Amino acid sequence: MSATDHHRIIEAVWRIESARVIAGLTRLTRDVGLAEDFAQEALVAALEQWPQSGVPENPGAWLTATAKRRAIDLFRRNAVAERKHEDLARDLATLEQTVPDLNSNLDDPIGDDLLRLVFISCHPILPAESRAALTLRLLGGLTTPEIARAFLTPEPTIAQRIVRAKRTLAEKHIPFEVPRGLELAARLSSVLEVIYLIFNEGYFATAGDDLMRPTLCEDALRLGRILAELTPDEPEVHGLVALMEIQASRTRARIGLTGEPILLLEQNRAHWDHLLIRRGLTAIDRAHKIGKPRGPYLLQAEIAACHARARTPEETDWPRIVFLYTELAHLTPSPVIELNRAVAVSMVHGPQAALDLVEALATDPSLDRYHLLPSVRADLLLKLNRPTEARTQFELAAALTQNTRERALLLSRGAACQTK
């Protein structure tokens, strides 16, 4: 096996195991930055040793044991944490005698540690962009350059965000624990927000030459599925997973051969991934069986399910979508939700009824730079046979988006208005 093959294997192992290794170390050191340093040292040791000794039978356990040895060495040198040293040594001895089942994550300490790591990475004390970067680093196993590429952000900026985030968690003495009661609900909301932020950036790239960044979608889905297994009684977690599964099912149909976007109602539904759709619908069922009131992610998942269940665009249950958007707007008032609701209203009550709603939203300053407002308005004007006004709105929308593919589509739709 070549050195390249070994590096590829180690990289794959790291992506799978790093979160569990860091989570276990964070529980012991109570410092996420220190835990990541030890985990990185174990990774370096693997890169040095595995090409000669071969990949161990349980690489995750090997990485964990190696990292803990480094931790013990540090505490010995510093002689500042004698009790911690004894705990670590005892834990390491136990670890070496019994190989842990790292695939089990429901009732064992590894699963608990992962859940704690999710909550500390997504702590609301951190800015949203820092939460996303730290989560991808600690739970997704991505390097700083990979995160920078994913968000089209300079590497030094991402590095600073991660360093500041770890420093803040240490300085504020954020406990490495899963919150309980009312605090759990508040913190869980932050966790779901971060995961959906990562997914959305992958699904609707805000800038750049590509419409999507599929690896970000895959990372978010993986985090969501882990969280759903760790918190089986939280319907909003299943709702978010369902929403992401169903949206991800359309990935192949969303982009044409030359990378151009294809609108939802124009997609070839044979290209939708029906396995992901089934997984999404199953997640919705799991959420309903819990028996709690549905929240915003479950409502959005049910809207996505209305599209997924329709074999053709004409079969779409638009009245139910309007109903669900109305409930969603009542639960979490937002001009963006109202804009989406207006689109559904146009399919039920016609474009003029929807345009009246959109015109009312145009006075909301939060939508001043939101390119989908003029884009929706343009669609409605076109349906009302007002092509000149529609073209102006398409061009305005194109000027506001930073995504090259989306801009090209909007300009082409604007140009097509001339022939109407």
TrEMBL record:
Cytoplasm is among the record's keywords: no
Signal peptide: none
Origin: domain of life: Bacteria
Residue ranges of every copy of the RNA polymerase sigma factor 70 region 4 type domain listed in the record: 120-169
UniProt keywords, alphabetically: Coiled coil
GO biological process, alphabetically ordered: DNA-templated transcription initiation
InterPro entries named among the record's database cross-references: DUF6596 (IPR046531), RNA_pol_sigma-70_dom (IPR014284), RNA_pol_sigma70_r2 (IPR007627), RNA_pol_sigma70_r4_t2 (IPR013249), RNA_pol_sigma_r2 (IPR013325), RNA_pol_sigma_r3/r4-like (IPR013324), WH-like_DNA-bd_sf (IPR036388)
Gene3D superfamilies reported for this sequence: 1.10.1740.10, Winged helix-like DNA-binding domain superfamily/Winged helix DNA-binding domain (1.10.10.10)
Domain DUF6596 as annotated: residue spans: 187-288
Gene Ontology MF terms: DNA binding; sigma factor activity
Coiled-coil segments: 78-105
Record domain RNA polymerase sigma-70 region: where: 20-79
Identification of the protein by name: RNA polymerase sigma factor (Sigma-70 family)
